[in-house]
Design brief:
About 30% of the residues lie in helices and about 30% in strands. By secondary structure, the protein is an alpha+beta fold. It has one domain: Aminopeptidase (3-Layer(aba) Sandwich). It is globular. The model has no long low-confidence stretch (mean pLDDT about 90).
Amino acid sequence: MFRIRRIYGDSLPRDREAVAQVQAILRSQFAGLDEHDVARLPLQLANPMKYSFKSILFVADGQRGDVKGFALLQHAPDVGFCYLDYISIEARCPGDPTGYPRRR
């Protein structure tokens, strides 16, 4: 079982851990992504004016807080524009967002 929740920043310990897990997924699933882009995720959540877009992060996590996948949207409310920047699941369960092993 998993739940989907929005992460507003990294001020709470559980949200900080979720952001760190999202960064790990970004590194593993998007090998060509610059490390600087991965590292600035907490700053994008905390300071949308600096990056011209409001970053909206949703995570699907398990009961223990283990992030199964995420979606990162960029929103420009002044022009009514939003785009899906990244969507991914963790590397250990490709094709299965629940995290359970596949049956053969």
